[in-house]
Write a structure and sequence with these properties.
Layout: H1 2-11, H2 13-40, H3 44-68, H4 73-84, H5 90-109, H6 113-147, H7 153-156, H8 158-208, H9 231-238
Helix pairs in contact: 1-2, 1-8, 2-6, 2-8, 3-4, 4-5, 4-8, 5-8, 6-8
């Protein structure tokens, strides 16, 4: 197997390197997407108690500032959109959060999935195409050997048939992880969408039960300075 692979790389390099490039691109896309998913997560069990305390202490504006500096998509995008419209009522909050999910968060979660599945499908077809081309060349060489009555001509070309199948195997090796990862990520996006809707409902409940903290009393104004008495008025008062 190892010797056949070395022979495929050395003799059929024009088939090997395009497939290798697609495999490396596929691996880079998978790692990139997983890193993005990891940075988008929010531990709601830890975040919600802190958010609730911030909302009670600093009000809606303070809670919005707190959410805007978080790394997760739910506080940074969903909660910020809801809090921006909190003073306009529950209907405005619900509409703003739905638009944010549909137009901002889901497109960001689906980023790189289309290139991944495209490379997965193309790699299989490219591998099959290269195998077919190599097989055509091999069978043409076998036919030429038979016409020339060369002994062992067909047997000498049998090894090349095995080499041609390496292109198909490399295409499958590239495609299988991509298709598998694509299916898993799609399922995670669906679960994340449900988590966002649940978090949005919790936010609306918190806002409905929230009372803005009383405004801090303004500092008392300084007493006006006494008006100076003129010297002539003082003399008149003595008289």
């Amino acid at each position: 197997m190892a010797n056949a692979l070395k022979e495929f790389i050395s003799n059929e390099w024009y088939f090997f390197f395009p497939l290798l490039l697609m495999s490396m691109t596929a691996m880079a896309l998978i790692i990139w997407r997983l890193l993005l998913n990891n940075s988008a997560k929010t531990n709601m069990g830890v975040f919600l108690p802190v958010f609730t305390a911030t909302l009670a202490k600093d009000g809606i504006d303070g809670a919005r500032k707190f959410c805007s500096v978080q790394s997760g998509l739910i506080p940074r995008k969903l909660f910020v959109a809801g809090l921006d419209n909190a003073k306009q009522g529950a209907a405005a909050m619900r509409k703003a959060m739905a638009n944010t999910i549909e137009l901002e968060i889901l497109p960001e979660m689906n980023f790189l999935l289309a290139p991944m599945i495209a490379i997965g499908k193309i790699a299989t077809m490219v591998g099959l195409l290269l195998t077919v081309v190599s097989m055509i060349e091999t069978f043409s060489a076998i036919g030429e050997a038979v016409r020339n009555n060369e002994q062992g001509g067909a047997g000498a070309q049998a090894g090349k048939i095995g080499l041609a199948l390496f292109a198909t195997s490399m295409g499958l090796i590239t495609a299988i992880p991509l298709v598998f990862t694509h299916v898993i990520l799609k399922d995670k996006i669906h679960k994340f969408e449900l988590e966002m809707k649940s978090a949005g409902q919790k936010l609306m409940t918190l806002i409905a039960n929230h009372k803005e903290p009383p405004a801090k009393p303004a500092a008392p104004a300084a007493a006006p300075a006494a008006k100076p008495v003129a010297a002539s008025e003082a003399v008149t008062a003595r008289r």
